[in-house]
Amino acid sequence: MDARFTDEQDEIRRALRELLHKRCGPEDVRAAVDRPEGYDPGLWTALGEQLGLPGLALPEAYGGTGCTSTEVVLAAEELGRVLAPTPFLATAVLAAPLLLALGTGAQRAELLPRIADGSLTAALAVPGTRLGTALALTDPPGGDWAGGGRAGGVQARHRGDRWRLYGEADQVLDGHSAGLLLVPAHTGGYARPRVLLYLVAGDADGVVRTRRTALDATRGQACVQLRDVPAELVGADEGSDIRPALAALGDTVAAVLAAEAVGAADRALERTVEYVKQREQFGRAIGSFQAVKHRLADVYVAVRAARSAAYYAAWATAHGEPVGALALAQALEALRTAAGEGIQLHGGIGFTWEHEAHLYFKRGAGDELLFGPGHRLRAHAAEAAGLFTGWEVAV
């Protein structure tokens, strides 16, 4: 087995890093999150036209580049380094794979080329605040996260020749700006309960979208209310429950998120090392103190280990080995450690909200709230693997 990256994979990383270095510095990030979209549309257009980023994992037949999960993970790591606020996660990682796997031929032909060229953004509007549960990262697949019976979550009714949706989804990534919403909704009542996936235009009548103030401003979130909204069923089978498909997608999403966190942790460590080499105390750079060296060495080891786990998860995803959640747990812990040490070692300036170090700290904390925390990711992975089956704990 050759674990080295190919020349093409190295080129994807190099080209993306070069573009982001020019157009996504700290001040660019802060300006982008203050825009109504929550990101810079010009940067998103450039990522699509120059690098084909939105369609990286889509087949060439739909305008994509046909890359594997490894290339997606490498791209995510570069986006994470600069905390680039883009619709990449919501559109290319969450929504597009579901359309590719479940959509009809007409739906794929109409929507996927527009996603691949960056002209259409999409969001997965999971009801409530249970995205990690829906993706089977912190809980077993299934459950009542979509709402059941006649209340809770999002409900779907077949009226005439159209489906109608009503309900609410909170913490929808890029839900305030996405042109297309993919909404898992409960239908069938108590007699034949199931969760189906529906397409809803972002500007459809009855859709009320409110941007949320999130801990991590670089990941835009919205509350999406659906008030008797017309919707189109994804696929042609009204009896196919969406929950297994979401659970199958979860491992890939976790691998991508792990790579993002590794990129952020690596950059936070780099910035801290640069600072301690310059900051002087008692007539010498604080980076020369043994205690500082030891602390940063621990961070370095954590980041390297998390990177190895993320790369392995990218490979394992394509081979049916579900380790994404474990890689994500390790990466989130590495990011929390790197960002926390960065804030402390920057001293007084590091504790100001305006400093760049806080952007990295908030990214780690925000991802733990959305997809974690680490101990739940590990606990569910252990349970799913039957690690403790048959064990008896003595009290």
TrEMBL record:
Cofactor(s) needed: FAD
One Pfam family in the UniProt entry: Acyl-CoA_dh_N
Enzyme Commission no: 1.-.-.-
Residues of the signal peptide: none
Domain Acyl-CoA dehydrogenase/oxidase N-terminal: 6-118
Domain of life where this protein originates: Bacteria
InterPro entries (UniProt xref): Acyl-CoA_Oxase/DH_mid-dom_sf, AcylCo_DH-like_C, AcylCo_DH/oxidase_C, AcylCoA_DH/ox_N, AcylCoA_DH/ox_N_sf, AcylCoA_DH/oxidase_NM_dom_sf
GO molecular function: oxidoreductase activity
Keyword GTP-binding: no
Transmembrane region(s): none
Domain named Acyl-CoA dehydrogenase/oxidase C-terminal: residues: 256-384
Keyword list, A-Z: FAD, Flavoprotein, Oxidoreductase
Family listed: Belongs to the acyl-CoA dehydrogenase family.
Protein name according to UniProt: Acyl-CoA dehydrogenase family protein
